[in-house]
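Message: Study each token:
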Amino acid sequence: MADGGAGTGPIRLALVGVGNCASSLVQGIARHTGRNDATGLMHPRIGPWGAGDIRVVAAWDIDRRKVGRDVAEAIFAPPNCTARFCPDVPATGTVVRMGPVLDGVAPHMAEHPEEQTFLPADAPEPDRAAVVEALREAGAEVMVNYLPVGSQKATEFYAACALEAGVAFVNAIPVFIASDPGWAERFRAAGVPIIGDDIKAQLGATIVHRTLADLFRRRGVRLERTYQLNTGGNTDFLNMWARDRLASKKRSKTEAVQAVVGERLAEGDIHVGPSDYVAWQKDNKVAFIRLEGTLFGGVPMHLELRLSVEDSPNSAGVAIDMIRLARLARDRGLAGPVEGPAAFLCKHPPRQMTDEEAHAATEAFLRDG
């Protein structure tokens, strides 16, 4: 159970998965440490914390190029390929530990060159007791889950560890924990807050697609059909070549758009999801979005958009908000899903809201403390 009253020390963070998203997050923390810079942040301060007031105190990965290295070195090891926007990240003093592989590595990943794929370390895999002990020894307060898409068993393993250790859980991937009633009740019963599932990028394909779909609704345009096709060259896109790992991701992104269209589209009239892996794109993501609708008088119209972004930095500022909100919820003694912030910052929250409603709910959450 969390103690009441907001603390003022740095937030003690545990990282699960030291991939491109973790790299952008750690670089962002380093870039903002000791600087009064609000560039790219939705909330310069949440509670007493700025973006630089986060310390990585524990981390797990399974790749032999990362395990045993300081987090500040591991974030730049292959197969990570995101932008290096803060090249001088100081040592954290936290060494990446070996995690359990479970379903975190798809078999097809082994068919690709080493610089594009995961190389599991030849090291003992920890059991839950070992991870819980490490969290407690490190004094971790918030855990962020950055495992590959489709890591159902591995995500559940770390979620159970967070529950036992009393660590707030931020689920940045589309494995449904916060939005699963059974897991949500387990977090409520344990007195532990959770924010999830599946992080929305700062200005990514899903938030842009949602905004356009909502604009159609507000302006009285009947949305007839829509698609979102994405390409990228990072391990996330390569991992999702295994279509069985893609189901939750596709559902998460599709429901994020369906939630704002008013009248739900038939399954055959909406396609939202990752589409292909293009190795040379690396961490650059390109999205092609098309919406077809009907104006007054039954006159047809369509809108097409191409969006190109560096994928992982596009979510790092959002993750910094989620981490600070999770710590705030923990300090307030809250338990279970934190619904307003989850609806604002995640694609598949426990309760979907329009972005305007979710923003208002998040601002109310910040004021209510």
Summary: The two ends are 18 Å apart (CA to CA).
